[in-house]
Design goal:
This protein has 429 residues and is α/β, with parallel strands linked by helices. The chain has two domains: 25-79 and 391-426, Urease, subunit C, domain 1 (Roll), CATH 2.30.40.10; 81-352, Metal-dependent hydrolases (TIM Barrel, Alpha-Beta Barrel). The chain is built from 13 helices and 20 strands. It has helices at 3-23, 96-105, 108-124, 141-150, 193-205, 235-247, 259-268, 281-290, 298-309, 314-332, 354-361, 366-372, 375-380, and strands spanning 27-37, 42-45, 48-52, 55-60, 68-79, 81-86, 127-132, 158-161, 166-167, 188-189, 210-214, 216-221, 227-231, 251-256, 272-275, 293-295, 335-336, 398-401, 415-420, 423-426. Strand 19 and strand 20 (423-426) form a beta hairpin. Helix 5 (193-205) packs parallel to helix 6 and helix 9 runs antiparallel to helix 10.
Length: 429
């Protein structure tokens, strides 16, 4: 064979070998000391999780010969956490002044830069997925953040975003400023069924995965001592919002604190109630019958109760009511999902995983606590079997802790290892 042909053959062979090596799937194996199968409520000792192309290929005891091994044999491993109620573009709003300063004095690009830090904090704490429901006057910057994460520009949790959130005119801040001023709005306002349909369409065309509505505001006590609020939307407006969202395969989350908001939201067919501090028996029955999810956001309730109660004691009453609502809803079988309202509190001051301990303190069983931030949250996001579980076909989102969260739920606040889509984003030091 002539040298030139031989040399060309060698080059082609080398090229093909390199191409094959680049295209061959990377196989990663995680050896878990204790694997928490939250879906099946089982503990597996010495399990081997095989990961290919960012997804779980198998869970067993066999290690493929070509695998890259990660030794977590001294740790407890479980699915990555899901926080179903966050605000990445907000950095704490215990008072109205805290909120107003961010919208008035911080540009949207500056707020987006701060959000990248918040998202990294969440990821380091083990939250591999978030549902970010309301960017508080930041246009569609949450869509930009989601895309930047998907494209590998920044690191952060997988995001499901709700963009601007909806209220009728005059039902949300900023408020109280001189009438001559054109101040920013924290939401998108719509009045009338047709305008609200158009607002839903506008948000979806700009990338909204969810639609967020503020169902009520202005909380107060009646003469009989019941806690109530002012409903925001008319029944017709709320039905239009939910119908339009569902027509385009989007779900609807309703900020609703009392039955004044719950009744209209649930009648319209919303998919989740956010906060829901006051859940009376009739509301709970509706939620169970309709399969509506609940994000209690207990962490933020504790955070804001002190500062806000200085000027209005209703906030302490709402916090206390939320504890009783939790006990009743859990006993009745409401689908409770971890939602912290991070951003309502400072991302760098409170670990979102504190929400788990609050559920445990109010009587939720250990397995159910962990499921609320994994399996049940994945169901809310319409990603059952793909997120919140360690099973073949699921996203390879894993966290590891030194302690057992079934024995001590606060172990979730001390995550030492995080993997998202098969990539280690926080290694053990």
């Amino acid at each position: 064979m002539p040298r030139r042909i031989l040399f060309s053959s060698v080059l082609v062979s080398a090229f093909l070998a390199a191409l094959t090596a680049q295209s061959a799937p990377t196989v990663v194996v995680v050896r878990a000391g204790r694997l928490l199968d939250v879906a099946g409520r089982q503990v597996r000792t010495g399990a081997v999780v095989v990961i290919e192309n960012g997804r779980i290929a198998s869970v067993g005891t066999t290690v493929p010969s070509n695998a890259q091994a990660i030794d977590l044999s001294q740790y407890t491993v479980m699915p990555g956490f899901i926080d179903a109620h966050t605000h990445a573009l907000l950095q704490g709003d215990a008072t109205a002044e805290d909120y107003d300063v961010q919208l008035l004095k911080e540009s949207v690009p500056y707020r987006a830069l701060r959000a990248t830090r918040a998202l990294r904090i969440a990821l380091d704490h083990g939250f591999t997925t978030i549902r970010d429901i309301g960017n508080e006057g930041a246009g569609f910057a949450d869509v930009d953040l989601k895309q930047a994460i998907e494209r590998g520009i920044i690191q952060g949790p997988r995001m499901f975003v709700a963009t601007k959130a909806l209220t009728p005119t005059g039902a949300y801040g900023l408020s109280g400023y001189a009438w001559e001023l054109n101040v920013p709005k924290g939401v998108q306002m719509c009045d009338g069924a047709d305008a609200c349909r158009a607002a839903v369409r506008d948000q979806i065309i700009h990338g909204a995965d969810w639609i967020k509505v503020y169902a009520d505001r202005s909380y107060y006590k009646t003469a009989e001592g019941a806690i109530r609020s002012l409903p925001n939307f008319t029944p017709e407006e709320m039905r239009a919002i939910v119908d339009q969202a569902h027509r385009t395969r989007r779900r609807v989350a309703a900020h609703s604190m009392t039955p004044s908001g719950h009744d209209i939201a649930l009648a319209a067919g919303v998919d989740s109630i956010e906060h829901g501090d006051v859940l009376e028996d009739a509301t709970i029955r509706q939620m169970v019958d309709k399969g509506v999810f609940w994000c209690p956001t207990l962490t933020v309730s504790d955070f804001v109760a002190g500062p806000r109660s200085v000027t209005n004691p209703i906030w302490a009453a709402l916090r206390d009511a939320s504890h009783e609502s939790f006990r009743k809803a859990y006993k009745a079988g409401v689908k409770i999902v971890v939602g912290t309202d991070a951003g309502g509190f400072d991302w760098d001051k409170i670990n979102q995983a504190e929400e788990f301990r609050r559920y445990g303190a109010l009587g939720m069983a250990p397995w159910d606590v962990l499921r609320s931030g994994t399996v049940v949250a994945a169901e809310l996001l319409d990603r059952a079997g793909t997120l919140g579980t360690i099973a073949p076909g699921a996203r390879a989102d894993l966290v590891a802790m030194r302690e057992d969260p079934l024995a001590d739920v606060t172990a979730t606040e001390r995550v030492v290892f995080v993997m998202k889509d098969g990539v280690v984003v926080r290694a053990i030091k």
